[in-house]
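Page 42, continued from yesterday. The earlier attempt failed because a stray header line got pasted into the input along with the sequence. Redoing it now with the clean sequence only.
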Amino acid sequence: MMDKLRPFHITVLVYMTQAGIVMFTLPRSLADYFGTNGWLVLIPCFLLSSFNIYLITLVFRLGKGRSVFEIMEQSIPKGILYPFYMCLASVWLIFGCMIGKKYVLLFQMLSFPTTNPMIFKLAIDLLLFLMLIKGLFTISKSATLFFWMTTWMLLLLLWFFPAFRWGRFTPFILQGGHDQVKGGIEVYAAFLGYELSILLFPYVEKTKKSMAAIYVGNAMLSLSYLCLTLICFGFFSLGQLKRLLYPVLDLLAYIQLPFIERLENLLYGFFLFLILMTVVMYWWAAEEAIKRIVPKLKTSVLVFVMMAVSYCISFIPKTLDQVNVWITNLGYAAVGIAFGFPILLLIVLLIQGKARSSHE
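This time it went through. Structure tokens are written below.
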């Protein structure tokens, strides 16, 4: 009998998949798009993501824990499903690729400005390859290890309390922003990652605790975002937040120790563990989709081909601005998949339920 992921490991896996590169720019996005007290937008984003998770739990309940691929293949011809699987895999693969590329470009900018960033990208991809070929349970164990290696960084927020000022919040709510619909989608994209839990059904126990663990992981991330953005809005002025490209990096630069220079470079290295988990889970999801098309292909060969394609695509955007455009557009697609995929599955399950009841 195949081992199952425990609720704690599901929670950690969801949290680590969601937490990623976007937290460097999240406070600036909230200030720029929504203005004063923009951090409040995180609350409806949390509620909306929780509703999306509710749709996923409905699929789990109605499908009785079956794989989402099995549910679709029971009612939809494979000639239609294979292009759909390729679309899913393409979005997930390239989205993960661009997240990794953005981290590499930032790392190069901070520490190795004269080094070719694709060398670092290759090193990260090789590490991801080794994780992927070991399967989901090894990825889950890695997520738990990385969680304990990085979660302590939230305590660093206590360092900024002496310079924190409640007066910087002002009594005005969401004043001075622009393009709030576009900004709302971009901010909501910071919560993405939970939607991949819809592929975990065959790997979890068929209990309510398994689905509750997804809610907990999402709540943990939301609380982390809320604490981070509150500190940023109380540490920087609104004008500063709008001008700073990466306010969290500037926040880390404020921490000074007598025996370490440029501590933010060291701390930035710890974010690699978050990026690794985000990218590896999106690539694992892409692998799961492609496996349905070529089930007899060896996992190691499939992963190698996927990563080779991804690495070649990562050469296309050269600058951070270009990478951000890719991430933004792919984020829109990922948000659409996050809501559209479970809705499609619910429709299929309802049709299957009516068909069964008519035969009885």
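Notes: The chain has a mean pLDDT of 88.
Reminder to self: strip header lines before submitting.
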